[in-house]
Design a protein that fits this description.
The chain is α/β, with parallel strands linked by helices and about 500 residues long. It has helices spanning about 5-10, 25-35, 50-60, 65-70, 80-90, 105-110, 125-140, 150-165, 180-195, 210-215, 240-250, 255-270, 275-295, 315-325, 340-350, 380-390, 400-410, 435-440, 475-485, 495-500, and strands spanning about 25, 35-40, 70-75, 95-100, 115-120, 140, 170-175, 200-205, 250-255, 300-305, 330-335, 355-360, 365-375, 395, 420-430, 450-455, 460-470, 490. The strands form 3 sheets. Strands 14-11-13-12-16-17-15-18 form an 8-stranded antiparallel beta sheet, with helices on both faces. Strands 1-2-10-7-8-9 form a 6-stranded mixed beta sheet, with helices on both faces. A 4-stranded parallel beta sheet has the order 5-4-3-6, sandwiched between helices. The chain starts with a helix and ends with a helix.
């Protein structure tokens, strides 16, 4: 092996700024995957990412004269924070070039440590080219995020800590892969001492530069890298990291956005910590591996590499987590357009929790409803769909339909020109299993439901928007229903948004 990485890692200087992160047992997830999964909590570093290790180990080895000229780097965020912290500790100037797509939380964190932020390009590669140019112009040192032996050795201290913290047999270590610095460092240390331990990288399906490079035997460059897991959105891996991965890494596993979101939720349920998408990659990969290999009672370690994420991304992650875990089935169901059919359909679902229901009157004979239901697994979803089909209800499975999950679920509606005497009410009721069915039972059978929207947001109260055709002569009966409802309701019939888009 070129370069003695064992020696480099053993002598790496990282603990001036980094901490020895804990190795924590994920009890809930371990029980679900039937293996003992431990999380290497690099999200607990001072900059909430492992990147501070490699950045500091590189910069602390520069001479005072070189440090005086400053450093430059390119980063989607976590390496930037590591360089900024190292520069602050070493009293040197740092310029960080970041893609314009970098989350604001990462930019602010870098600036808070006194570094200068320059935004350039839509990807790391464009920011990288700009940073190299700046470094040359300013005669500053470029600190590479991953393709540098000192940076790799700094990240390799994670492998050293894992072997020190974990005693006994260890089946595999899972690491996220962007440019390859983290997995290269960990593999260089672990494989030298325990070659039987598997080192497995995890990449997003739309940012799989290492996977494709290893498969083709040469470094390839992606035309585009998906930005959901922005911390690993690298179009081309490093020369040195590719060499090390080719020699030492057992395999690369690919996971999609839904699987990453599910892994973020898994870690939260075990630790109450919220990882960023790239930080949860290794957990998603460990789950895939355990299921694919059908292993049981093995010791697995996933490196939770970072937790720098904008708060507003949580809405999307929460929506997709259940799909990633295959615990939500999304369907389009055709039911007869007649009073009571909606209630009959809900009765067919039995005790299953409806997480979303979208419907707007459109056709006098058929009603097309968009429905999402909580299920235990994919098999239960398929069984439910077959059951609905046997009952004569045409059902389209939309669980894997990206457009339906991202857009259609929010666009079901429009104006219904054949609807007469429509009243629009917003209802609020305690949200617990069976509460939606109880709500429907409280309504008169002969009022035609012309619009219905319900979404379970995991709150204490369920909220439904309901349009009903109530003839003028039945207004007194309708008011009696409202008075007996027993929970909060609001008349939205005069709401300008209703008049503009649905009335």
């Amino acid at each position: 092996m070129k370069n003695n990485y064992l020696e480099k890692i053993l002598t790496a200087r990282v603990y001036d700024v980094a901490v020895e992160s804990p190795l924590e047992f994920a009890s809930n997830l371990s029980a679900r995957i039937h293996n003992r999964l431990l999380l290497k909590r690099e999200d607990m570093q001072p900059v909430f990412s492992f990147k501070v290790r490699g950045a500091y180990n590189k910069m602390v080895r520069l001479s005072p004269a070189i440090l005086k000229r400053g450093v430059v780097t390119a980063s989607a965020g976590n390496h930037a924070q590591g360089v900024a912290l190292a520069a602050q500790r070493l009293h040197c100037r740092a310029t960080i070039v970041m893609p314009v797509t970098t989350p604001q939380i990462k930019k602010q964190a870098v600036e808070a440590r006194g570094a200068t932020v320059v935004t350039h390009g839509d990807s790391y590669d464009e920011a990288y080219a700009c940073a190299l140019k700046l470094a040359k112009e300013e005669q500053a040192t470029f600190v590479h995020p991953y393709d540098d032996p000192d940076v790799i050795a700094g990240q390799g201290t994670i492998g050293m800590e894992i072997l020190r913290q974990h005693t006994g047999a260890l089946h595999a270590i899972f690491a996220p892969v962007g440019g390859g610095g983290l997995i290269s460092g960990v593999a260089a240390y672990v494989k030298r001492l325990y070659p039987e331990i598997k080192i497995i990288g995890v990449e997003p399906v739309d940012a799989d530069s290492m996977y494709q490079s290893l498969r083709k035997g040469r470094r390839i460059k992606l035309a585009q890298a998906g930005l959901f897991a922005d911390g690993v959105a690298v179009k081309q891996v490093g020369v040195e990291t590719f060499r090390l991965c080719r020699e030492l890494v057992d395999e690369i596993i690919l996971v999609d956005t839904d699987a990453i979101c599910a892994a973020i939720k898994d870690v939260f349920e075990d630790t109450r910590a919220i990882l960023e998408p790239s930080g949860a990659l290794s957990v998603a990969g460990a789950k895939v591996y355990a299921m694919r290999e059908n292993i049981r009672d093995e010791n697995l370690i996933a490196i939770a590499s970072g937790a720098n994420m904008n708060f507003d991304r949580l809405r999307h992650i929460s929506e997709r987590a259940e799909l990633g875990e295959q615990r939500e089935a999304v369907m389009a169901v055709t039911i007869p357009e007649e009073p009571g059919s909606f209630k009959k359909f809900c009765a067919m679902l039995g005790t299953k929790s409806i997480t979303e229901f979208n419907y707007r009157y459109a056709d006098p004979k058929e009603a097309h409803v968009f429905v999402a239901v909580s299920v235990r697994n994919r098999g239960e979803a398929e069984k439910l769909i077959k059951s609905l089909e046997r009952s004569g209800l045409h059902t389209e499975d939309l669980t894997d339909n990206e457009m339906a999950k991202l857009h259609i679920r929010h666009l079901v509606g429009g104006r219904a020109h054949d609807v007469k005497n429509e009243l629009l009410y917003r209802f609020e009721f305690p949200d617990r299993p069976g509460s939606l069915m109880k709500f429907l039972n409280s309504m008169s059978h002969h009022w035609n439901i012309s619009l219905f929207h319900y979404r379970n947001h995991g709150a204490d109260y369920g909220r439904a928007l309901v349009g009903m055709e109530v003839p003028p002569e039945e207004k007194i009966e309708f008011k009696a229903f409202l008075s007996q409802f027993g929970n909060h309701y609001w008349d939205e019939s005069g709401n300008p948004a209703y008049k503009l888009f649905l009335g």
